[in-house]
DNA sequence: GTAGTCATGTAAGAGGTTACATGATTAG
DNA sequence: CTAATCATGTAACCTCTTACATGACTAC
């Protein structure tokens, strides 16, 4: 949000719309997170609000980054980040494919492929848009920064999206690999644990009491 | 956890150790999450605990999956998953490289490269270990399942790790691309916004209240 | 007038991190 | 005897999701 506000002062609503649009590819946030966070940052002095009237009785708060906010943004940019622990549902489910059916596996892998393929298209479009400076937020930022910096600013955005493209291509390759594998196993007649009828009591050998509630 | 417990009944501590070991690559969880979750699952009837003595006065709880737990595992395996909204710090920081220094960018990209490269090596080792059935948990599961299923069980684990390998390779390629880019920009003498001294008041045009820290 | 957009919140709850906390058992 | 390992928790806090909620403004 600090970085976005360096392009130009705006309302929380403007930020919400950016987070619903192109920014969502880089970082997602719902409005229920954005508004409280703006208040918090204001209290910390990183941003400043100006209340301006809109219409007859309503007002809106336009936030601008403060020098302290710029300091914080710089500090953040120079800070190292930690890569979070692994927690990827698609991989987890893949590891236990045998507990479902071949059709379920195919459905999931196709959805995975489609999802990343759609993202890939959007990432590619965005890289093109960046190259032709066809992104409003980027354009605004270039307007207020000296031309010497333009190459670095554009290169950074482009590079970030390149990361998504690499990722998306990897996911698509993986899903294709999986679909092939599923076909191979099924046509070889390999049975799945999830389809077997001996698993229900493989452990305790007994116990058939009540309802299994959903989580 | 349900899937792990299908291999054999075990204590929470055993699960904690698995989650500190090979399982961590697929899904990470600290013991502070595992113990309460086991209690919850027990209350729901998905697993069952047997208190067994250990030593003179201590006891431990050995958890076994129930038929209801197996149902739940199957249900989960057949359920579609949702790919969560984007929230990747490395990409976010990449998009705003210009707010830091070239050295900071290089440091982050090198750390990124190293991190994924180390993971890649571990993933490769794990795939080899899977191929040679050299993973204790996998071996235990194969022991209790009919041989006809073995190919599917092994293939699933292998496939999951293949996904990590694809991902890691993509991240490494991306980081290399970034390091090249940083070198190119710096040697071309492109200035960065974060190094400029005109940014502190580019927005408000005035306001010089706080101490201006040196970065 | 009314539908869509502008604008801004609150709150419960799930999931995860980090720290605090304890004590028994076993191998040397 | 002592250190490592076995074993099991609790709690504060943070982030994010989902749902609930409200009302003014503007274009038709």
What are the salient characteristics of this protein?
8% strand, 8 helices, 3-stranded antiparallel beta sheet, DNA-binding, mainly alpha, 215 residues, 59% helix
Descriptive overview:
- The structure is a homodimer of 215-residue chains.
- The first copy, chain A, has 215 residues and is mainly alpha-helical.
- Helix content of chain A is 59%, strand content 8%.
- Chain A has helices at 2-7, 12-20, 31-43, 67-78, 89-95, 102-131, 136-144, 147-187, and strands spanning 10-11, 47-54, 58-65.
- Chain A has a 3-stranded antiparallel β-sheet with strand order 1-3-2.
- In chain A, β2 and β3 (58-65) form a beta hairpin.
- In chain A, α6 packs antiparallel against α8 (147-187).
- The model of chain A is unreliable at 203-215 (pLDDT under 50).
- At the A-B interface, α1, α4, α5, α6 and α8 of A face α1, α4, α5, α6 and α8 of B.
- Chain A binds a DNA duplex (28 and 28 nucleotides) through α2, α3 and β3.
In brief, what are we looking at here?
By secondary structure, the first copy, chain A, is mainly α. Helix content of chain A is 59%, strand content 8%.
Most extensive interface: pair and counts?
A-B, 101 and 103 residues
Enumerate the spans of chain A where pLDDT stays under 50 for 5 or more consecutive residues.
203-215
Q: How would you characterize the largest beta sheet of chain A? A: 3 strands, antiparallel
Could you give the distance between the termini of chain A?
A: 35 Å
Radius of gyration of chain A: 25 Å
Helix and strand composition category of chain A: mainly alpha
N-to-C SSE series of chain A?
Answer: HEHHEEHHHHH
Strand order of the largest sheet of chain A: 1-3-2
The average pLDDT value of chain A, as a whole number, equals 93
Overall outline of chain A: elongated
Which quaternary structure do these chains form?
homodimer
Strand content of chain A: 5-15%
| Secondary structure tally: strands of chain A | 3
Number of helices of chain A: 8
Query: Helix proportion of residues of chain A, in percent?
Result: 55-70%
